[in-house]
Design goal:
By secondary structure, this protein is mainly β. It is 1% helix and 38% strand.
Length: 361
């Protein structure tokens, strides 16, 4: 693990003024601020390929295991919340998890998964949390395409500050469809919390598409001021492209076009029309990062990480720590492959294929 830890010490001194008639006074020194504790990585709980993490207001951690189980962990005991019948063929599985922004009132838990009974389809389902168990499962978004082959399924879900549900979908190795606003492939989708389509989406009535031109977006994070960042997996081995690398971080805007497959990276032309659209905020170039879960770290996060944008690297098994705007890598953090979230204690919680870790003081 490589971690750069910033230790901030503030020492204030006050000078006293003297006059002709009064003796000078030496002030008492101001106490130096205590150094913040150095964060450390510890195992929080065992988990089987925890693709997605979500915190409840009551401080339970919900986590999705790729093979189809959603569990909760309260710091002591792990419980099964719900299960789904999913396929883990290729990049399929139980891939996304989100709690309602009004969870205290409605107690809704949402998940994205690939169907076991139809490998070409995926869905978003919602449960009611009743006493720690998911009841009344309801499919709110059906027939999301998965494609017939292995890869590029997307599957991340998150609620925005507008209360809408955002969903990532890969292009299922049907690259041209990423540029079509009538296809759901290679997109960021936006829905109401009940699965209906908002009337203010950019591409027409009833169209859930929010942004186009993505290859396999697999990290989704909102900042405290409402910015949406997505991590997109680059064209490793696609015809005419380098064999690895060119992963991206993208700032997602309403109606944005992130250029795949006409171009990849910052304006590298691949096919069809010349590059036009939104350039990535950051690109990995030849570095094979395979970016996955992402989050913005608050100013109360671990020492040295406050205010940063971070995401997990599946291939490097490290947390990549970026500048707040996602344009500049700062350093590599602790172990992380699948997802990362800041907990109610402001530690970072990170997952890989076998465990969930806590990174904090």
């Amino acid at each position: 693990m490589v971690a750069r830890v910033m230790v901030l010490l503030a020492i204030a001194t006050v000078s006293a003024c003297s006059s002709r008639s009064a003796p000078s006074v030496t002030p008492s020194p101001t106490r130096a601020a205590s150094p913040q504790p150095t964060p450390k990585l510890t195992t929080y709980t065992a988990a089987d390929f925890a693709t997605a993490l979500a915190w409840a207001p009551d401080k339970r951690l919900f986590y999705a295991e790729r093979a189809g189980t959603i569990r909760t962990f309260d710091g002591t005991t792990s419980r099964v919340f719900a299960t789904v019948s999913t396929s883990t063929s290729g990049e399929r599985g139980l891939l996304g998890l989100a709690l309602s922004p009004t969870f205290d009132i409605d107690h809704f838990v949402y998940a994205f998964y690939s169907r076991a009974d139809d490998l070409t389809r995926q869905r978003v389902v919602r449960w009611l949390d009743r006493g720690g168990t998911g009841v009344n499962p309801t499919t709110i978004i059906e027939n999301l395409p998965a494609g017939p082959d292995c890869c590029h399924k997307g599957g991340r879900i998150a609620f925005g500050p507008d209360g809408k549900l955002y969903v990532t979908l890969g292009e299922n190795h049907m690259a041209a469809e990423a540029q079509s606003t009538s296809s759901l492939r290679g997109k960021i989708l936006r829905y109401n919390a009940d699965g209906t389509v908002p009337s203010d989406n950019p591409f027409g009535q009833g169209n859930p598409v929010w942004a186009i031109g993505l290859r396999n977006p697999f990290g989704l994070a909102f900042s405290s001021d409402g910015k949406l960042m997505v991590t997109d997996n680059g064209p490793s081995g696609d015809a005419g492209t380098p064999g690895s690398g060119w992963d991206e971080v993208d700032l997602v805007v309403r109606g944005g076009n992130y250029q795949w497959p006409t171009c990849y990276g910052a304006g590298r032309h691949l096919q069809g029309p010349q590059c036009a659209g939104t350039l990535p905020t950051w690109q990995s170039e030849a570095e094979d990062v395979v970016p996955s879960g992402a989050t913005f770290v608050s100013q109360k996060g671990p020492t040295g990480y406050q205010g940063t944008f971070v995401f997990c690297s599946y291939s490097e098994a490290r947390l990549k720590v970026m500048s707040p705007d996602g344009t500049r890598p700062l350093f590599d953090g602790p172990r992380c492959q699948l997802d990362v979230k800041e907990g109610p204690d402001h530690a970072l919680y990170l997952s890989d294929t076998s465990a969930i870790y806590r990174f904090g003081p």
